[in-house]
Amino acid sequence: MYQLFKTVFIGVIFSTGLLAAPLDAIDVKPDVVYGHKDGMALSYDVFKPRKNSNGVGLLFMISGGWVSQWTPPEVAVGFFKPFLNAGYTVITVRHGSSPRYVIPEIAQDVRLALKHVHENAEELGIDSTRIGIFGFSAGGHLSLLLGTTTNDHGDAKTPRVAAVAAVFPPTDLHPYVELTNPLRERFPALKFDASKVDLYSPLLQVTQDDAPTLLVHGDKDELVPLWHSEKICDAFTEAHVDHELLVIKGAAHGFDADGNKRMFEAMIRWFDTHLTTMKSVPAL
Question: Pick from 165, 197, 237, 274: most CB atoms within 10 A?
């Protein structure tokens, strides 16, 4: 899944023409430390458009197979160009990676990152009440985990998630943590106490206070089958949570140029609807 994430990341950049972009129109704040673990720093990068910033922050979960990678800002900015063009500040979150850390520890990291962004929203130039989260595959799982487990706290000091967009995310981890499933060996982050699997399966954490959520999924995905998104949409419907599912026909765990274009347009439209007053979708 990690190698697939790298392939998807690079493929999106090239298939949509989002090549490495100049940084002269974007303020970049790299390696912001949001915590420490085992003597190591946990960090995120901040990309903010200089001219048309709308004051909304989008946290991107850098995770493929629950592994985070570092990408030079001048390369990463190309991937986030559609969001930056729409005025969003993008905050790219790195977490402690598998195989050293497993999902419960990784979830703790991204929750800490959300808390840090919330507490430092003014300095980052964003509104702490309008924070969105998005990610792909394992990053989509972490996005949904935050979106389904954060907003049940009524304390104004506790960060809330205002909107989520998750692309081909695992939503129920039960099949993956089974000892007989070969994916458990392929993705060591799944090797955690099976008695806790419900806590880290977004499907089983859905409640009426969850963030409005967009799902994007290919109907030919064999690694993370479409039913993961379909089932959580059923749960959202039952809980009366605003949601939408975009199915990319013929797509597996990754999309072609047209699929990526539709994905970006859907995500921007979703965030525009739930986080801003803008309704238009900028051209890619």
Answer: 165
First-to-final CA distance of the chain: 26
> How far is 200 from 138, CA to CA, in rounded Å?
12
- Cα gap 219→259, rounded to integer Å: 12
- Cβ partners under 8 Å of residue 217, min gap 6: 167, 168, 224, 226, 228, 229, 245, 246, 247, 248
**Sequence-ordered alpha helix ranges (H) in the chain:** 2-15, 73-79, 81-85, 103-119, 121-124, 138-149, 174-177, 183-186, 227-239, 257-275
Q: Answer yes or no: pTM beyond 0.85.
A: yes
Mean pLDDT by runs of 10 across the 284 residues of the chain is 48 47 80 96 96 95 95 89 95 97 98 97 95 98 97 73 98 92 91 95 97 98 97 98 98 96 97 76 43
Domain ranges of the chain: 2-275
Report which of 114, 138, 228, 140 is spatially closest to residue 186, judged by C-alpha positions: 138
Rounded distance, CA 173 to CA 105, Å? 15
Encoding tokens for residue 80? 């986030």
- Nearest in space to 79 (alpha carbons), one of 7, 20, 137, 1: 20
Closest to 41 measured CA to CA, from 94, 106, 90: 94
Chain Cα centroid distance, residue 41 = 21
